[in-house]
Every structure is written in structure tokens, then in C-alpha cells.
# Entry
Amino acid sequence: MPRGRHLRDTLNVISSSDLSPGGLTGRDGAISAIRRTIGEARVVTVTGLPGVGKTAAAIAAAGSTDSEFRDGVWLIKLDTLQDETLLPHTIAAAMLLPDTYGASPLEVLIDALGRKHVLLVLDTCEHLVGACAAIGSALIESCSGVQILATSREPLRVPREQTVTIGPLSERHGVELLTQRANVAGAEDPEVLAAVCARLDGLPLAIGMGARQLSLGSADALLAGLDNGYDFLSDPTAPVPRHRTLQAAIGWSHQLCTPAERLLWARLSVFDMSFCIKDCQEVCATTHLTDEAIATGVRMLAERSLLLREPGEPPRWAMPGTIRAYGAGMLRRLAEEEEMRRRYRRWRSGPRRDAFWHLPQRGVVGRLPLL
# Structure
């Protein structure tokens, strides 16, 4: 079987990427970073915000390493797998390994891969983190020629793992992708297009959905529509169900959070500026969400790619606008919006708050629809 065949055969079903003839828009640096890290670590996990294009960048990087792996680069898509006990069987089936009765699927994998030099691309691991970590560790420990490239909204947390975080597109690349997808180059005000991309947090998935709307109207109309939220953004042609609406893409992360993390996410949606843990505690703490739970929750939301860490010390984070909007919807359903907004206004008017005010950049902590 040709090396890497399973990787190349799946390229046409990746929904969150811009697979144009020239490659992925604005992702040369990310692809190079992933490829470089594959050369340094046996387990590499690509992380990033919902809809940022982790799968597309990882596949592009993995495809460029095909000749370096004697026995191929294999893509194992895990987005529809719900039973973690079936993970080793799923990997074996994707690699066309025969069923061996009397042996566990993991033993079959270890035996089959023991002398092979392969790169396993485990795509969409966040709902199976524990199982992926366990099987990945076992394969790395037992099979000296196996390397793993995972895509996940959070790290696998295995020994010697290295992560590569994919960031939002730059303004220039966001506008380029938007105009390419909508086929409106030169027909719209560049400043309005840039504002649209900023409101969409530079996320390729969201920009692609915005382009569908832009092809039916003007950039001004699209920007005005975003004033009322993101519910209208969709792509019914996307082969992955959670990529058919922006709400579904973000909701996938919501499902993976603990109840305390969901509550904190909702309450943090009132912040239109960056924050530290102490800020969150002052605004969000109640008997149902203690200071300790908030400290843990902020770190976990960041690990789950729902907050963006700002440079500098002490640590500060910002919640992207699309993530904030989802949290604001949760806050309304919890009937806590009025109380949390009142708490935030009181905190915001306190001493020296302006010292930490950050002007909105690319929509990260800027205007929030309906808040």
C-alpha cells in the first residue's frame, strides 16, 4: 500500500480548512512549527480555539513529512467515536490491521507496529483525552518507531508531549480568506472586511461561514448582522456535523467542560477586558463557585482553548468574542445576567481598573452582541 495513502485520501473531507491550490491561507508558520516539532518530540499535540483550523494545519504538516516515515502517515479521525474502549480497535481498523482473536486490540497494535516507522495522526482527541493519552503512551513506550501527532482542544498530558498552539488568522490573512471564499475581492471596503474578521475572532471556520453570507449581501450588512449575535452563521454543506454552525462548534467544547467550568464560562462572559484570577474571583465568586474553583476553572478553560493567555506576568487572559457570546447565552438561561453585570460594573469602576484596560484587538475582548 502506498505510504500516506490514508492521509491523502481524506483531504477532501476536511471542513475547517482552506485547501486552495496555494495551500492554507496564513498558515505557513503554523505548519512549519508543527513539522519542526514532529522532528523534536514523539508526541505532538496541536491545540487552539474552536474553528481555528487545527485539523487542516496538522494534516498539511503531516503530509509534508510522508517521505520521512518508512511505513507511512496514517490519519485516524475520532470525531464520531464515543466509546473510548473502541479506540485501539478504531486505530487498528483504520490501518487495515487484521482482527486477532484471543488478543486485545492494544496488543494487536503493539505487535503490528513494533518494528514499523509510522506517524499516527489522531484527529479530534478532546472528547477521548484519557484514552488517547493511555494508548499513545503505551505505543510510544513499546514501539520505538511510532510517533503521534494529535489534534485536540486541550493537551493529552502525556510525558514528553510537546504542544503547538494554532492562533487566529492575522487581519490580512483573515480578509484574504474572506474575500477568496466570497469572491468579492476589490468590491468591498477593506476596513469593513477587517472589522468582520475581527468580530469573527480570525477563526477560519467562522470566516468561511461569514463568506457564505457575504456572497449573498454586503459586508456592511454582514457586520450589522453580527451585532445581533452569531446564530445565523452556518455551513450546511460541512461534512462534520459540529462544523455546520458556529454554535455547534463552540457547543462541542461546552459539552466537554465540567459543571463548574460551564458556570464560570457563563459568568466570565461579562468581562470585556482581560482579567487575572483575582479579578474573576472578585466578580464571579459565590457559594456555588468558590475562589478555589475559580482559580482551577480559569486554568482549565485556558487549557481547553477557551481563553487566550496574554503576554506578561502575572498571568492574564481574554475570552474571544465568539466564546463570550456563547457564554452570555448561558448566563441568560441561568438567569444570572443582571446580577453578574451589576457585579462587573461595580468591579470595573474600582481603583486602577483602567491600568489593565486593553483596546479590542481582532475582536478578542471587544463588543459583544446583545450584552
